[in-house]
Amino acid sequence: MRGLYTQILGRRSAGYARLAAVVLLFIVMVARLIDPLPLETLRLKTFDFYARMFPRAQSAQPIAIVDLDEESLARHGQWPWPRTLVSDLLLGLRDSGAVAVAFDIVFAEPDRLSPGLYASTFPRIDPGLRSALQELPSNDSILAETMKKFPTVLGQSGYYRELIRPDSTPLKTIPIAFLGDDPTRFLIEFPDVVRNIATLESAAAGIGMFTLLPEQDGIVRRVPALMRYGDVLMPSLSVELLRVVTGGAPLVVRTDSAGINSLSIAKLRIPTDGNGRIWVHYAKHDPSLYISAKNVLDRTVPTKKLAGKLILIGTSATGLFDIKATPLDSAMPGVEVHAQLLQTMLTGDFLVRPNYALGAELFLTAMLSIIMIVLVPIIGAKMAFGLGAGLAITTFATSVYLYAQEGLLLSPSYPLLSSLMIYSVLVFHNYISEETERRYVRSAFGQYLSPDLVEQLAQDPQKLILGGQVREMTVFFSDVRGFTTISESYKADPAGLTRLMNRILTPITHDILSQRGTIDKYIGDAVMAFWNAPIDDAEHAENACRAALSALESVEKLNLEREQEAAVFSQPFLPLRIGIGINSGNCLVGNLGSDMRFDYSVMGDTVNVASRLEGLTKLYGVAVVIGARTRTLCAADLAFMEIDFIKVKGKTEPERIYALLGAESLARDQMFQDLAKATEGFLVAFRNRQWDEAEALLTRAKSLSSPHELASFFELYAGRISELRQSPPPEDWDGSIVSLEK
Questions:
Q1: Cβ(620)–Cβ(614) under 8 Å?
Q2: Which of 115, 151, 499, 626 has its CA 20 to 30 A from that of 531?
Q3: 683 neighbors 737 (Cβ within 8 angstroms)
Q4: What does DSSP say about strands 290-292 and 277-279: parallel, antiparallel, or unpaired?
Q5: Which parts of the chain span the membrane according to its record (predicted)?
Q6: 360-385 CB burial, b ≥16 within 10 A, e <16
Q7: 232 with 196: CB under 8 angstroms?
Q8: What pLDDT is attached to residue 395?
């Protein structure tokens, strides 16, 4: 039954599961191409995990941050400071040997503390004083003059809408060379830019964008190396600072069909993503980078901390709102992000998500999914779990290795998530199939096997024989003696006969199942059962014998109940008797029958002999007759007694047959031992044609047999001896008897 189920339904169901998995694979591939926000967030969180596992190592790079910290604001007043104070800050840096400076600050308006502007705020001031103040140089011009003496990069910021500005001075541009396609369409574009005043812009060595664009979750992972406002391309603050200190050479932008892939400054090539953004390889927060602005103004900073350094001026003051979240820190001053980007570029310790990353992840998704689709339906649950775990660990470990050793950002998250979804679909299908199979097994074998054996089959259907298989088994036949006579007494009550048959077959069935037997079929009043299939049973012969003894006890209990019932209702009582034949040997077991109807059954010569032995119980007047192989296999010391050396109908070779008279307690009884010994001696004398001795031993054995109702057995042999005295057997007689019983 299970063989047909597996071959037809199992294959078809696996095909449906694979089809569903293929459809799901198509969906997840399309979803990855669309790349909705949850998928992007999952990918970025994976990279954050790597960043925390493998932060960039701290290195002695010539970078320092001059911090407009809370102490500096407390000393010199709230921001904005007078530009003259900013000029003093630059002079202090220059005098300490700093190489260049970049402002993470925009000077978008003239300094209101410049003498001329300050005088205009007082309408009643003395005209002479106003004229004198207006003739003094502005604070902006003083700062501009300082900037001309010291390489300075001003910062500016992209703005989300167009601004109305009083002048239309063109943005300062830098030389940029393109290798490949025009990168303009790939760059991040701003509607407008918050600029510095023209006086300062004209004096600056460079102008860079300090705009940081967090991802959707608010974390800054990438900084645009190049941005666009209209037709003007603008470098980031760190990139422009690096360009200025390397001689102001043109930037070289390389693009391909997938977008921008790198940016070059002098001999330094900086990998970017397709939109020209640089992945910042963050190190842990380094307080030693920070120098308080007040200390620079006070000239109390050791020269070695500033000499030869690239300086970034920014703020960590909370009130100036320049705090960013990064993969390593929930709150980091924005100026340090620029400093970390500058360190990344100087060390060459880049993180790269190449333009082929999408294709690589799609290929990995397809490969892992196809492996699952092919193998999961045909391997067991444990192997499927091991396969899935092995592939997941290998994929994750490879991704981690590429990040840690090569700086490659190839996310395993979506390939693993997709293959997990497909794995789940297939495993769920396997689970449903196995549950269906278990229900099928329970339904198919529940009426034939004990509940324990059915559950074993349900939990491990592989124990169920598929098709037909030859194996050694023990076969059991039982039949009700005198059933015709009994049935005739129920002519007027067919329902009563049915109830009677249920009453006798039910306990016999329980006795067989309790001894791990399998019910093959019911044939009227007869029961056919077998052992050692579909569940292996090393003690199949012994279990069959014990089932026979239990069945005899059950029939006796039933007879007592029926006798009491007959007395109550003043009805005649006919006791029930059963005969049982048991034989062991090789049989063909499995799903036997036709394409239209089949049963899990057993067939073979062993079965035929077992049926013949059941018929012989009437001849010998015993309840249970077993074959020689059963007696050999039964290790238990039950009460066996040899009764003949016979050729059953249909067999050419004789074999010894035995009566099973009881369990171990009877086998240990001295009277039974004497009976068995006397019977054995009698049979030896009989087969040796020693008729007088055989008759004497027969008489001896008969005198010991009163508890066992063996009268028919002894009468049979007494008749045989009488016949053989008159018609002696041939000289080559082996002592066997040919049975004509079916």
A1: no
A2: 499
A3: no
A4: unpaired
A5: 16-34, 356-376, 383-404, 416-432
A6: ebbebbbebbebbbeebbeeeeeebe
A7: no
A8: 92
Q: CB under 8 Å to 628, separation ≥6 — which residues?
A: 655, 656, 657, 658
CA distances from 724 to 29, 150, 483, 710, 734 (A): 92, 139, 34, 21, 14
Q: What angle do CA 526, 532, 533 make, to 5 degrees?
A: 80
Q: How far is CA 162 from CA 70, 108, 155, 193, 194, in A?
A: 33, 15, 19, 8, 10
User: pTM for this structure?
Assistant: 0.62
Handedness of CA 197, 200, 204, 210 (dihedral sign): negative
The whole-angstrom separation of Cα 180 and Cα 201 is 31
The pLDDT value given to residue 440: 65
Q: Which of 469, 454, 463, 446 lies closest to 603, judged by CA? A: 469
CA separation for the pair 326, 218 (Å, rounded): 8
- 8-state DSSP, 219: B
What contacts 156, CB < 8 A, 6 or more positions away? 106, 193, 194, 195, 196, 207, 208, 209, 210, 234
Under 8 Å between Cβ of 573 and 566: yes
Across the chain, which has 742 residues, the per-10-residue mean pLDDT values are 41 70 89 89 93 90 93 92 94 95 94 77 72 79 94 94 78 89 92 93 94 92 94 94 92 90 92 93 92 95 93 86 88 93 94 89 91 80 83 93 94 90 81 68 56 58 62 96 81 85 93 92 92 91 97 95 88 90 93 64 92 94 96 93 87 89 94 93 93 92 87 92 91 81 59
Residue 734 CB neighbours (<10 A): 10
Domain 463-636 has CATH 3.30.70.1230: yes
Q: What tokens does 287 get?
A: 């307080």
Contacts of 653 (CB under 8 A, 6+ apart): 647
Q: How far apart are CA 722 and CA 728, in angstroms?
A: 10
In 3D space, the residue among 623, 639, 621, 620 whose CA is nearest the CA of residue 631 turns out to be 639
CA Rg, the chain, in Å? Answer: 50
Closest Cα partner for 131 from 147, 145, 143, 120? 120
Sequence spans of domains, the chain: 2-52+354-437, 59-347, 463-636, 664-742
Q: Partners of 593 in the beta sheet?
A: 598
Say how far apart CA 316 and CA 432 lie, in whole Å.
60
Residues with Cβ within 8 Å of residue 434, at least 6 apart in sequence: 381, 461
Q: For the chain, give the longest Cα–Cα distance.
A: 170
Q: What share of the chain is helix, strand, coil (3-state, %, to 5)?
A: 50, 20, 30
